């Protein structure tokens, strides 16, 4: 292969190898000095529909070496999450907060504009405390997906990691759900896998930045 052709490929490979194929320079607070990874949300975070230790935060805890806190509370809307943010998240010395909220807003037919405002406020307050944010998108409409693009926009504008369509293929598959709106153990395993694929390289990049000082 001519040198001029393989050189760009080699450079591309080199950058990919150095950062696990991902560039997290855009993430706000990549150098966070916090300690815990907090999973913040509603019943999907607490693990309704699965047994003890089968919720996605517990699965993450078995895969990662960081302290994992399950701050899920069934029934929470985005406004409920905002109301308990200080007590359940900001006071826990977070390094990374995984935000999974909005399902109950949709079920209660709350205005998307209000949900978006609350989620953005949660993201900004978490970042203001010095922690990173991973914002989880959930496809909620049967024919349209208004929440996913709104959450992706929030993440992009605020330097947060966006994890798309966390429920994709789960609630439509009886083998992966316990009821029409909650996964079972296998479903939560898939959720954990999707989240892990995004946050493991993020935390590794953050560790490297922390070591560099």
Description:
This protein is α/β, with parallel strands linked by helices. The protein has one domain: Rossmann fold (3-Layer(aba) Sandwich), CATH 3.40.50.1110. 47% of the residues lie in helices and 15% in strands. The strands form two sheets. Strands 2-1-3-4-5 form a five-stranded parallel sheet, with helices on both faces. Strands 6-7 form a two-stranded antiparallel ribbon. Helix 3 crosses helix 9 and helix 7 runs parallel beside helix 8.
Gist?
With 213 residues, this protein is of the alpha/beta class. 47% of the residues lie in helices and 15% in strands. The chain has one domain: SGNH hydrolase (Rossmann fold, 3-Layer(aba) Sandwich).
The number of E-state strands comes to 7
Structural class of the helix and strand makeup?
alpha/beta
Q: So what's the overall shape?
A: globular
CATH class value: Alpha Beta
- Give the full name of the CATH homologous superfamily: SGNH hydrolase
Assigned CATH architecture: 3-Layer(aba) Sandwich
Range of helix content: 40-55%
The end-to-end distance, rounded to whole angstroms, is 41 Å
The name of the CATH topology is Rossmann fold
Strand order of the largest sheet: 2-1-3-4-5
Can you count the helices?
Answer: 9
Can you tell me the residue ranges where pLDDT is under 50 for at least 5 consecutive residues?
Answer: 1-21
Rounded radius of gyration (Å): 18 Å
Strand content: 5-15%
Largest sheet, described in full? 5 strands, parallel
């Amino acid at each position: 292969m001519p040198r001029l052709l393989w050189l760009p490929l080699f450079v591309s490979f080199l950058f990919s190898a150095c950062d696990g194929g991902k560039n997290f320079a855009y993430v706000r607070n990549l150098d966070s000095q916090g300690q815990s990874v907090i999973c913040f949300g509603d019943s999907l975070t607490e693990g309704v529909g699965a047994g003890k230790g089968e919720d996605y935060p517990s699965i993450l805890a078995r895969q990662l070496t960081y302290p994992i806190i399950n701050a899920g509370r069934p029934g929470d809307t985005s406004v409920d999450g905002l109301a308990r943010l200080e007590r359940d998240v900001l006071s826990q010395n977070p390094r990374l907060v995984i935000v999974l909220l909005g399902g109950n807003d949709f079920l209660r037919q709350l205005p998307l504009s209000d949900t978006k405002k609350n989620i953005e406020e949660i993201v900004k307050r978490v970042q203001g405390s010095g922690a990173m944010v991973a914002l989880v998108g959930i496809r909620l409409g049967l024919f349209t997906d208004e929440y996913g693009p709104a959450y992706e926009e929030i993440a992009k504008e605020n330097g947060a990691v966006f994890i798309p369509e966390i429920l994709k293929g789960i609630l439509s598959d009886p083998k992966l759900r316990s009821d029409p709106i909650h996964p079972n153990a296998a479903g939560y395993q898939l959720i954990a896998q999707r989240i892990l694929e995004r946050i493991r390289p993020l935390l590794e990049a953050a560790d490297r930045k922390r070591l560099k000082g």
